[in-house]
Amino acid sequence: MKKISCLYVCGAIFLILYYKGDPMTEEEFLARYRQFLDGTLDAEGIAELHAYQDEMQLEDQHWRGDPLAHTITGLEIAQRLQVSMARKPGGLRRMRWARAVAACIALGIGVSAYYFWHSHVNTNRSGAPAVARTSPPAEKVWLTLANGRKISLSDAGKGVVAQSSGTSAQLQAKGQLTYTQDATAVKPDTNSISTPHGESFALTLTDGSRVHLNAGSTLRFPVYFGQDQRDVYLQGEAFFEVNASATRPFTVHVQEQAIQALGTSFNIKAFDPRGTRSTLLTGAVHVVMPERTLVLHPGQQAYFDGAHFTTRPADTEVVTAWMHGQFAFDNERLGDVLADMQHWYGIELVHGTGNFNRRFTGRIDHYTHIEDALKRLELTGALRYELTQQHIVITVL
Predict the structure, then answer these.
(1) I want to staple 206 with a disulfide (CB 3.0 to 4.6 A). Which of 58, 181, 237, 269 is the partner?
(2) Could you give the CA distance from residue 1 to residue 343 in angstroms, rounded to a whole number?
(3) Per the database record, which ranges form the Protein FecR C-terminal domain (predicted)?
(4) Strand partners, 276
């Protein structure tokens, strides 16, 4: 259905370009564009916007005197479709149609939008020197052995990087480490892996379970598991694909909780001070609290803010988007969206004036520089950002 919808819009653009009626004036173009910004323009109207922009040869300089000048190009229109303010819950499901439309609109657009953006938009609006760094710091993924020795997995080549307690840790490729058990020791050693800002990492444990560790996270684990249980300890965020074992529960200890599974897949997000979110994709898990235990079913999320415990439905595509190099948010507070960006890039985002409880829905790629991600948010017209010597200040409009 998505492919058919996309082809329909592309066909509409083709018909508009080659079977045009009366030309649209600049005033009509701007009126329709304002409809688009208000969310009242349908897909056909959006296609007409792009088509008539080409037809009238509306070069960027024609619009510089208009308040909409910095967002009038087709590329920015597509970007506005991809990141929009959520006016109702469930916005991301509606955004899937918008992404299909945006992809069609973006076809055929040249480099003029890119040139315009970088030539005419001054991100350092105060005139102060820009911050020295807008990309994640040059840090490394570290493997810490039981004796305290640290090994940089960012610098190591393929092959065995460590051996202990009858196991071998082998780097398969960049960002992937696999543990295999060669023999059994009296007691397994404990290792840990820590990821820096801006980088994730994948780990395969000796039981075959896989762990995808998000940026700024640490996983502590035994180099092999015993006969009765499988326990690991998490700080940060990780996605678990647990190898089934009816006699050995797999338990993730995180903050004040223990998430127990026999064979399933789930995501745990525990970045202080925003609480813990445990989301189940397949199978079933038990979320164990000091005074309460509950069972999660696929598509459910358990949320604990340190004082209150709730369960709610979750969009698993949003929850796991970080594994595919994206920030994704579905009716999320702007403050939480910015917190995710701050954590990924390791750069301080200072809240200026405005309401940071406003809700947003959309997807933004993990760009190399945080400026590129903030520009996508700024295109919604709901906020502005400013670079200073120490940090980045966000102002909600």
Answers:
(1) 181
(2) 36
(3) 327-394
(4) 304
Lowest mean pLDDT among 43-57, 278-292, 306-320, 325-339: 43-57
Question: Per residue in 304-324, pLDDT tens?
Answer: 887 788 999 999 999 999 999
Segment 112-139 shows an average pLDDT of 51
Q: How far apart are CA 63 and CA 72, in angstroms?
A: 8
Closest CA to 364 of 337, 383, 397: 337
Break the chain down into helix, strand, coil percent, rounded to 5.
30, 30, 40
For residue 317, give the amino acid letter: E
> Is it the case that residue 12 has pLDDT exceeding 60?
no
E strands, 156-308, in order = 159-164, 167-173, 176-181, 190-194, 201-204, 210-213, 218-222, 230-241, 250-254, 257-261, 265-270, 276-282, 285-288, 293-296, 300-304
Amino acid at 93: R
Mean pLDDT of 349-373: 93
Partners of residue 266 on adjacent β-strands: 240, 280
Quick one: 180 exposed, middle or buried, by C-beta within 10 A (0-12, 13-18, 19+)? middle
CA 16 to chain centre: 36
How far apart are alpha carbons 203 and 65 in whole angstroms?
A: 54
DSSP 133-182: --S--S---EEE-TTS-EEETTT--SEEEEEETTEEEEEEETTEEEEEE-
Listed residue (363, 372, 380) closest to 317, CA to CA:
363
Q: Give every CB contact of residue 377 below 8 A, 6+ residues apart in sequence.
A: 83, 337, 360, 364, 383, 385
What domains does the chain contain, in order, with CATH numbers?
Answer: 2-120 (no CATH), 142-319 (2.60.120.1440), 325-396 (3.55.50.30)
Q: Are 329 and 317 a contacting pair, CB within 8 Å? A: no
| Residue 175 pLDDT level (bands cut at 50, 70, 90) | confident
Q: Is the pLDDT of residue 331 over 80?
A: yes
- Pick 106 or 397 by higher pLDDT: 397
- Bridge partners, residue 349, by sequence: 392
